[in-house]
Specification:
This protein is of the alpha+beta class. The chain is 24% helix and 35% strand. It folds into 2 domains: 6-120, Aminopeptidase, CATH 3.40.630; 146-299, no CATH class. The protein contains 8 helices and 13 strands. It starts with 8 loop residues before the first strand and ends with a strand. 40% of the residues are buried.
Length: 300
């Protein structure tokens, strides 16, 4: 087989006309890495949902393809979004999936660097075990070393005993952040559990994604909260609410046991990576493939 010629290679943004070829490519590539054939629905669902995602102006909606002689031989999916960082909003990009045909592996770095070239953007990568060495070789650093599995229903004492849980789109009589309201409603449309914990003076947002660990253990992955301290504050009412919806356990990104919560920390479980100007915080997986691409009851 002749080696591909550099002069025939180019990177460009993905368009809707590329969806079929991109889904075929990613399905073929990830199936070869051991993922089931049903991964096709995952990629197709993800691209469809990205078509409705509020991508910041001037940034790619879907990602990039690598072309050789006008044929797609590689693709990387990106999810650009604005997320809270203190009192500011920063631009973040989740690298949601990448694959390059074996004959063009020497150009994988070109595709990756093209996707991650913005210096003002923080890039996050949430890789599975097979691709972690590649992610680390690309300059990503860990910001989350493991996961804490909490039993919030066992949190017998609540620092907010009068707290109430209301829906994402409920009328609120206390101050709230309009940006966070949009975040909650958007994730509810993706099938997440989105809610406010309200007190007499504030409304505190939470987003969870249902999943079944090992296919049998129902859990709720924490997708968004302002801080892990907020989860601890409202652990008791959140535990009751989630348990009534079949999710007695909550999974939270962490670097160790979480003070104030009953549960167990799993070192090395699903580490998270980043590179860029803003170190991500625990408790924020909003607008990532874990909340947008996956279905209502993912199996991990």
């Amino acid at each position: 087989m002749l080696a591909p010629q550099p002069s025939k290679i180019r990177c460009r943004e993905i368009t809707t006309a590329d969806f079929g070829d991109v889904v075929d490519l990613l399905t073929r590539g990830y199936h070869a890495m051991g993922f089931p054939a049903s991964i096709r629905h995952y990629w197709a669902r993800g691209l469809d949902r990205l078509s409705r995602h509020a991508t910041p102006e001037g940034l790619p909606r879907y990602g990039y393809v690598l072309e050789s002689n006008n044929k797609i031989v590689g693709a990387v999916l990106t999810i650009f979004s604005k997320v809270p960082a203190g009192n500011e909003r920063v631009t973040r990009c989740n690298i949601a999936g990448i694959y390059v045909e074996p004959a063009f592996k020497t150009f994988a770095g070109l595709l990756h660097s093209h996707a991650c070239r913005r210096k003002d953007v923080t890039y996050i990568n949430l890789p599975g075990p097979l691709v972690r060495p590649l992610v680390e070789a690309q300059g990503f650093k860990r910001y989350s070393d493991g996961q804490f599995v909490a039993f919030p229903l066992l949190h017998l004492k609540s620092s907010e005993p009068q707290a109430k849980i209301v829906a994402a789109d409920a009328h609120l009589d206390v101050p709230f952040d309009a940006f966070e309201r949009d975040l909650l409603i958007t994730h509810a449309q993706f099938g997440c559990i989105s809610l406010w914990c309200t007190t007499a003076t504030e409304a505190v947002p939470f987003v969870f994604h249902r999943l079944n660990v090992k296919g049998i253990v129902p859990c709720a992955r924490l997708v968004y909260c302002r801080s892990i301290e907020d989860f601890v504050r409202f652990a008791r009412p959140l535990g009751r609410y989630l348990a009534r919806r079949g999710c007695p356990l909550a999974i939270i990104n962490a670097n160790g046991p979480i003070p104030g919560l009953i549960g167990k920390y799993f070192e090395g479980s699903r580490p998270k990576y980043f590179k860029g100007p803003s170190r991500p915080r625990h408790g924020d997986l909003a607008y990532t493939h874990l909340s947008i691409f996956e279905d209502r009851n993912s199996i991990v």
